[in-house]
Write a structure and sequence with these properties.
three-stranded antiparallel beta sheet; about 20% helix; about 150 residues; alpha+beta; Nucleoside Triphosphate Pyrophosphohydrolase
Length: about 150
C-alpha cells in the first residue's frame, strides 16, 4: 500500500474535442466497450516532440490519414482519469492518466476508424447526456468542455 505522501505516477495523454461545422462533437467506442475522445498517451519517443505533433499522430492512427482538422487553441482543459487496463499478458492493472484537452475543428476527409475503435457518433455537446457514454475523468472532462463552450 502506498503512503499518502508518496508521489503518484501518471501516463500523459492528449485528447481532442473535435467538432464539425454543425457544432457536433466526435466520440467513439473502443474495443473494450468504453466511449472515448480521439487522442491518447504519449510514447517514449514523444519526449522531444511537440504536443501538436503528438495530436497529429493520434488523429492519423485513430481517424485515418486523410482527416483534416484545425486546432483552435492550446489545451483548453485538463483531465485525470483512472481505469483498469488489460495488459499484454491478460492481467488487469490500474492506470492513471493525465490528459490535455484540445479543441479542434473538423475540416474534412473521410474518417476511417483505427483498429482499436468499433463505432463512432457525432453528438450535440449541449444536448446529449455525457453520463450515458463516459465514466470517470473522461466524463468530468466532457462536462467541463460543455460548460466551457456554453460561455
Amino acid at each position: 500500500m502506498k503512503k499518502q505522501t508518496e508521489k503518484d505516477e501518471y501516463f500523459v495523454a492528449v485528447k481532442i474535442f473535435l467538432e464539425d461545422n454543425q457544432g457536433r462533437l466526435f466520440i467513439f467506442k473502443d474495443r473494450f466497450g468504453d466511449w472515448d475522445l480521439p487522442g491518447g498517451r504519449l510514447r517514449q519517443n514523444d519526449f522531444n516532440v511537440s504536443l501538436n505533433q503528438v495530436v497529429r499522430r493520434k488523429i492519423k492512427e485513430e481517424l485515418g490519414s486523410v482527416v483534416r482538422y484545425r486546432l483552435k487553441s492550446q489545451p483548453i482543459l485538463f483531465m485525470r482519469h483512472e481505469r483498469n487496463e488489460i495488459l499484454a499478458d491478460g492481467t488487469r492493472e490500474k492506470r492513471r492518466i493525465f490528459a490535455l484537452g484540445y479543441q479542434a475543428k473538423y475540416v474534412g476527409g473521410k474518417i476511417k476508424l483505427g483498429k482499436h475503435h468499433l463505432k463512432n457518433e457525432w453528438v450535440m455537446p449541449r444536448k446529449f447526456s455525457p453520463e450515458k457514454y463516459f465514466i470517470g475523468g473522461w466524463l468530468k472532462g466532457v462536462k467541463d468542455y460543455v460548460h466551457l463552450i456554453k460561455k
